[in-house]
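Recall that a protein's primary structure is simply its ordered list of amino acids. Everything else, from secondary elements to tertiary packing, is in principle encoded there. The following example makes that idea concrete.
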Amino acid sequence: MGENPSSARTADVVVIGGGVIGCAIAFRLAQAHLKVVVLERGEPGGEASGAAAGMIAPQGEMVNFDAFFELCAASRDLYPSFVEEVEELSGESVGYRRDGILMVAADDQHSRELEEVSRSQTRQGLPLERLTAESVHERGTTNG
């Protein structure tokens, strides 16, 4: 006999969203021996996770360093050990690199906004380096 239809439709937790965060939550809940169902409207990882290009950059545009920033930074700092665990369990590389981010000013207004971000982050003691177009070209491509 097959599985009881009503039991096939039960779960301890339903996670809405099959991106990186939703799948990570489902993974941890399953490790805690909960029955988890992930609902995703499209391709797993194809929504916000796909658009983020793999970036985990809580300081990228922050000028207010409040509790939300602290939570984001703590999450970022935990991520490398999570990646290591996933790679060990799966036998696959996820391609995680901690290279930093490059924020480019497209015009004078954006340049002023980035200057404000830079000043704010410097006051917080966050590492950053201001680059000219020439110094970026000297370093070569930004993807490796």
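The chain has two domains: 1-54, 57-127. The radius of gyration is 20 Å.
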